[in-house]
Amino acid sequence: MITINSDGKIMVRRCLVTLRPFRLFVLGIGFFTLCFLMTSLGGQFSARRLGDSPFTVHTEVIGALESRVVLRKMSDLLELMVKRMDTMVRLENGSELHRGDKGHIIDRFPPGAKLMEKIQAIAQNVSDIAVKVDQILRNSVIHSKVSEGQRDQCEVPNDPKYPDCSAKVEWMHARWTSDPCYAFFGVDGTECSFLIYLSEVEWFCPLMSWRNQTAMLPASKPLPEVQASFRSNLSHLLELIGSGKESLIFMKKRIKQLATHWVLAAQRLEAKLKGAGRDQKQILIHIGFLTEESGDVFSPRVLKGGPLGEMVQWADILAVLFVLGHNLKITVSLKELQSNLGVPPGRGSCPLTIPLPFDLIYTDYHGLQQMKQHMGLSFKKYRCRFRVIDTFGTEPAYNHEEYATLHGYRTNWGYWNFNPKQFMTMFPHTPDNSFMGFVSEELNSTEKDLIKNNKASNMAVVYGKEASIWKMQGKEKFLGILNKYMEIHGTVYYETQRPPEVPAFVKNHGLLPQQEFQQLLRKAKLFIGFGFPYEGPAPLEAIANGCIFLQSRFSPPHSSLNHEFFRGKPTSREVFSQHPYAENFIGKPHVWTVDYNNSEEFEAAIKAIMKIQVDPYLPYEYTCEGMLERIYAYIQHQDFCTTTEPSPLMGPPQPARAPTSLAPNTTHLVWPHNASLGSEAWPPFHSFQGWLAETGRTCTDACLDRGLICEPSFFHFLNTQDAFLKLNVSCDRTESEMNHLYPAFAQLGQECYLQKEPILYSCAGSNTKYRRLCPCRDFQKGQVALCQHCL
Known about the structure:
By secondary structure, the chain is of the alpha/beta class. Strands 14, 15, 16, 17, 18, 19, 20 and 21 form an eight-stranded mixed beta sheet that branches. Strands 7, 8, 9, 10, 11, 12 and 13 form a seven-stranded mixed beta sheet that branches. The chain has a six-stranded parallel beta sheet with strand order 2-1-3-4-5-6, with helices on both faces.
């Protein structure tokens, strides 16, 4: 008789009690095996999808070979399980015989023999499947031998049209694993995968003759031409902008407030164009400074008196582009940007996965940096389509990377090697950039009369919503003088207690909604600035509501050399007052600029202001119609992708002899009226005038002195020896160099200098050594961005 000790019985009973969970475990093994096989085999059958690179199959086959090893291990594991279960069943059978004598047979478990049969069947199936997988994989490897052999024989081509190919292949050998985007495009470490990538995704190597052309990236196709038509309903634009940020809510409110003005302006422009057709542009607007990745310091401050100038401008830009009838995509997050551009997964080293689907991209410096980080070589390929909203402007000396680095002009915001006209400013700081601007609400005649009749003769409003602006040293002195003549009001933000920086005699209203702030301006006689913020929209808004703007004169002028605010900005411009545009383009009686440190001058200005009354005034270029005209002209005529000007990589220009001539009884050059060349150019060549500036003067100032605007696109007419001769300048020696002040004449030594680098043509910049040759043009009254025949 078989005897089993008590420990053995306990072990067997535990085994039997856990038999049902064990069955579930076996079923789980089977299900996992099936899923594993489907995944492995599915990868083989889908490896030759249309558009996949041929070496994708090679990579997946290697993975499947590893899968085959796993299957064999699973089969061995199941066989081992069968052997152990066989021993356990035999042991249980003996135990049951022993318990049978006592009538305690446990019948709630299935017989051990049936369970063994099921386990053996699963093991056999796994073994059979492993054999079949082995056969499929062997056939797959044999089938790809031809193409594999061909790929193994790839050699780096020696083609003079692709001089960088060999170096790029070497770079790929060392760095292809540095960014997952290379594997996304099919790079697997083989020579052929490098060459295919460098010829079809990038463009450093010639195309491989044996390659299937259908596997390449889709060729860039011209976007469908659709005629643009003016829009009169802005509700869809509000949907496109979205919500979730206080900055976006502010922008939407502004668009709603000005909606009627935009519609009327569009109707007037449409009448001027007389039905002229124009293409609808696909435009991406990426507001980089509002993205979380850039910090978005503006949104939290919207309701706390923070700066709103940038958001005012962006709201107006969105309205203009939409009203003009263009198709817009608006992004304020990096994720949205990547999705719209077609950025491949990885760290941004590779080009886009699709041709850029946008004709134009409007962004700011933050957005520009984000796109450079994620577009790879596509950033250079499509950089002519960018339009950069740049509040303070970027001068050519800071824009040219090599020149800026060599001559101390490099900053955190410059060196993009763009055409300087691609930078679009809030005010017309320098004609080197394009003037984008913004708008202020235009009043009708009834509203103007109402304002004039309700003006308080002794009420002043201070320009400054943040308490920090009121920390200006010496403010008590000139505010004390002002308080003798006027009641002073402030709109300084505070939460619970009055800001201590605001003097007790100032009536502080706190931060006001836009409509209430406008009502305050319509009652006030004076709007006074403390010297900061620079060049904001509020002074123009105050002047449009019938206020006189009083501001401080800076001596010495503020610039990047002596003032922290301008340090690092890509401009050498000197600011002589808080709002140079208001001083130079509007002036008295609407704008008074005085020395706040001179009490007598300040008090005399206050007395004079008390005696005069002004009408509400708004320059045409800051009306809805003026901005619509300007942006319409830019979109229609500014094309930096097909320019005939040499690029920074093409070497020095070879100027042709321009048919300029000396104007009668004057000392400047003009474009002959009988010249046929340039009639279709923009700006038209007949608006050109060439002047020799006085020593130490910028071309911007030299043209303004003559009632003209500097036009950098005309510089190439003056960048010739012939231009010097026609201006009666005698050159003992002529040199061509890379310098943002050239073309110029140095009287000491009678030396003439020509410009070697076209994107360094600059209206800005001066030196007491040179008299600069300056290209000027006429302009429309109230619209300095456009010449008299530019619309």
